[in-house]
Amino acid sequence: IMRLRHLIILQNKVELVTEAEAQQQYADIRNFVKGTVADSAPVVPISAVLRYNLDVVAEYLCTQIPVPVRDFTSSPQMIIIRSFDVNKPGQDAEELMGGVAGGSILKGVLKVGDEIEIRPGVISKDDQGHV
């Protein structure tokens, strides 16, 4: 669906299992992605808590994932892929604090103080891959 070409699979929380269990999980991951776009992706066992192999992940991201061409001069456009509100259920309208939206800026730059418009839409690409 997303047509991703550069993938890395992180096997997290390896500090919580034995070495044998981690090796079995690794085999399970490899089997799960067999025949998919992720078939040739490296699987890196990590522990975010212990910072184990985070240097390997950082090096991979810096050396194997190409930096996309950026357009900093156009008006900002962002695709939102997830959102949630920070309000408590049943909160009075006067006390509403807003929400959080996450995604990727497709072009342009957002600056503090910019006024933004959020609206529904469908993003599609032409034959050359342009939005």
Instruction: Output the number of helix runs.
Output: 2
For the sheet with most strands, the description reads: 2 strands, parallel
How many domains? 2
Anisotropy-based shape: extended
Helix content: 10-25%
Strand order of the largest sheet: 1-2
What is the chain-wise order of helices and strands?
A: EHEHEE
Low-confidence stretches: none
Task: Tell me, rounded to a whole number, the average pLDDT.
Answer: 90
Alpha carbon gyration radius: 20 Å
Structural class: alpha+beta
* Structure summary, number of beta strands: 4
Distance between the termini: 15 Å
What fraction of residues sit in β-strands? 15-25%
What can you tell me about this protein's structure?
The protein is α+β, with helices and mostly antiparallel strands and 131 residues long. The protein has helices spanning 19-33, 54-64; strands at 9-11, 43-45, 77-85, 99-107. Helices cover 20% and strands 18% of the residues. It has two domains: 9-64, no CATH class; 69-122, no CATH class. It contains two helices and four strands; from the N terminus they run βαβαββ. The strands form two sheets. It has a two-stranded parallel sheet with strand order 1-2. It is extended and about 55 Å long.
